[in-house]
Amino acid sequence: MRRLLIGLTYLVFLVLLVAPLAKIFVGSWGDGWSGFTESLTREQSLHALMMTGILVVIVTVLNTVFGVMLAIYLVRAEWMSRRIKGLLNSIVDLPFAVSPVIGGLMIVLVLGPNSAIGAFFEDVGIKVVYALPGMILATLFVTFPLMVREVMPVLQEIGAQQEEAASTLGAYSWYTFWKVTWPSIRWGVIYGVVLTVARTLGEFGAVLVVSGNIMNKTQTATTLVYQDVENFNVTEASSVALVLAAFSVGLLLLMEWAKKRKEVH
Amino acid sequence: MNFIMRGRLWSFGFRSTIMLYFILLIVLPIVGVYSQSFQQGWSTFWESATDQLAWEAVLLTIKLAVISAVINVLLGTMIGWVLIRYRFPGRRILNSLVDLPFALPTAVGGLMILLLLGPNSFVGGLAEKLGFEIVFHEPAIIVAMVFVTFPFVIRGVQPLLEEMDKSEEEASYTLGASRARTFLQVIFPSMLPGIISGAMLAFSRALAEFGAVVLVAGNIPGKTLIASVYIFGEIESDNTQGAAAVSVLLLTLSFLILGAVNLVQARRHRK
Question: Does residue B121 or residue B253 have the better pLDDT?
Fold first, then answer.
């Protein structure tokens, strides 16, 4: 029984996870090394990877700052009643239940050229939808719960005693944050950052809808993979996908490392 | 005094900014979709939602998501059990690999399945000879859904198995129960909350999945067109009304599931 179950487990992993990963490796090398580098050094590939990079940086910074602050408020704030906190707390999870495509549609509906807010921005001369700001918003929406959900349990676990002690001793609140709160939530935040980066790197549905997937303008790495597959450029698609997969595996290793550190502290 | 006043003003501004960000980013868009789909009255909503193709897409999505959730329950329960209870070479690596589908971009996942099962591949060729088709048909969609939701049940079951009190199991053996009976009456019931919440999360994620499915499904209306791809198509053809109506259907379903999951987990924590 034991042998059989272990064997079956190995089989599932091999078929479902390892074989596809190996296949993408082989696929991208279908035309040899030169095919791989050529598809990566195409103008649109470089631009798409750059767009993904820009998105990752901006989204991670914003999501980290706002996520950590919101987590602190939801756990510690005394100026909100318990009821309101509970309500806000359940709202945090909503983006998990929203299909990425619908997330993109929401941004288009609220900020698109046909809406009041979108028309206003257009008058001012800022393009939101089918441009970088919309893509950032869509990705922020999708990644929002990740940081809050990592930091909140840590804050609940450590309790408010140390912080209260620090404030009664007269420490200014920023000082309290950096000296007392930050050291204990640090690994939770790092784990949240890794999750955010992974999700942003891989976000597809929401970005596809909001960006319009315009080559050399709003195309990201994942939407380029999609376009290449649609055009039957399998080698090119695999090459870009391999780069993304390599990043994901790297992030997975980082996650394991951060998880271990989080448990130690 | 002046210092304290300034501090108060600062923290008030800070709070408002964070709360405003939260409301604008999360609540406003969701309200936007609901209001858009009901803007022209209930009947227009009903017309768009019960459009033949839309309805078929939603039903197909639910059917395939249920199938993939069932597959996930079977595989996930087994793998969760094996990874916690048995010690064997490679266990740690497998345990880290579980999260791979979460880390991998879904579009990359879709491409992988396309390459692995496509008509030019070994598996695809074999299936073709045997007379059934995988890619661009329902099986491929199920594979894509299972791949994307793979970690949920495993990660739901594992902590429960780790927490479990060994003495209950031992008591059961001492009292003369067989292995099968112990598993069914002692171990399985304590795994059940994890299996249920994992399955529901997997189901709702499968309902919402887009990236992996759009590449392998073929997207033939009425046959392999699932709801999220239908919504995408409606947006592309500028029919935001239809897209919003189907979105509301899917969203409401997912929110209900999310609420149920929270309920299951809250009850567990209270115990």
Answer: B253
